[in-house]
Amino acid sequence: MTKKTTLIIALQTILIVTLVWLLAFYGRDEYEQQQLSAHEDADVRSNVVEQDGLQVVSINTATQKNSGIEVKPLNAFAYQGKTKALGTVVSIQTLVDYSSQYQSLLAQLSIAESGLPNHQLQYQRFKQLNDDDKNISDKAVQEAYALVLADQVAIKTTQQQLSTLKSTIEAQWGSQLSALITQKNPPDALKALLTQKSVLVQVSFPLNEAPPRPASTLTITPIHDHAKPIRATFISQSIQSDISVLGKTYYFTAPADDLRVGMRVNVVPEQLSQQRHHGVIVPNEAIVWNAGLAWVYVKTDEQHFLRKPVAVNAEVEGGWFDESLPSGTQVVVSGAQLLLSEEFKFLIKNENDD
User: pLDDT above 70 covers what percent of the chain?
Assistant: First the structure.
């Protein structure tokens, strides 16, 4: 082999080594990124899965132990006591507007009704004069009759408008509150609403709770406030529902001194619940809050946890009474917040991928 051939082979070897080194150097970042993405995807798939359209957090037994996740079975409990509920001070501005419309229509009706007898009397007098050898012109008689017809049409039209407005008020506020506007002498408790001496509070009770008795009372306190309890008096059933709380809604009135429109209030009836309810006690430590609602994580098998809503209407010692979960249900009492974080990490990851 000549020196020239040896030199060429040496140069080729150096070139090949250099190319391999360059490929390894510039491909390293891409390789690491692919590995990281694959690792993240594997983490997500291993932590959150979908079952029957629901997001279920999946964590193996070893990770549960290392993360301090603990579960506890729920004990059966029979509840009979004061139901704790939530309420909202609602605006009655539409009632005030309806009151103005109603009073305006009553004034129009009064004018038409008071003018009709005079116009009828004038028409009869003109007609007699016209019949008595045309002592008054036909045109004057026609004009007098036109006034009578105008009064009659005005009365009928206004009465229809009043009836329609009354139906509208009843549909939106119920018959009891519509009486505040449509009755000549409404109860003092209702008149205090229009004079802003009292406020209207919409209270939401559990679906299986008996309705309040007439003139029954309860105590309310603004949430996150240490004011003295305020007594509220039952008025009527509410036509509208509270979208933030599941349950049947009712209207109560309360003094306006410490309450403002839009305030959320805690509500405790003064009488015991009339029914005995069967359910479970959900421990305080099992509850996590999200979107204004209370949730617990239920262990469905050795590695899977499903988030379910629970009721927080009835507070008992150590937790809350709930009728939606059967006794013996395994719920997370330590590490629930960790599971919530894992679930929402998965949701955020999916949104970013989209």
Answer: 78
| 331 backbone dihedrals φ, ψ, rounded to 5° | -120, 150
Distance, in Å, from the CA atom of 112 to the CA atom of 286, rounded to the nearest integer, reads: 68
CATH code of the domain made up of 85-91+196-269: 2.40.30
Chain CA centroid to CA 26, Å: 56
pTM of the predicted model, to two decimals?
Answer: 0.52
Indicate the residue type of 111.
Answer: I
Closest to 240 in 3D by CA, of 186, 305, 166, 173: 173
49-80+276-353 under CATH 3.30.360.10, yes or no: no
Mean pLDDT of 152-157: 92
Strand, coil or helix: 254: strand
Alpha-carbon span 59 to 305, nearest angstrom: 8
The residue with tokens 């549960």 is 64
| Cβ atoms 336, 296 nearer than 8 A | yes
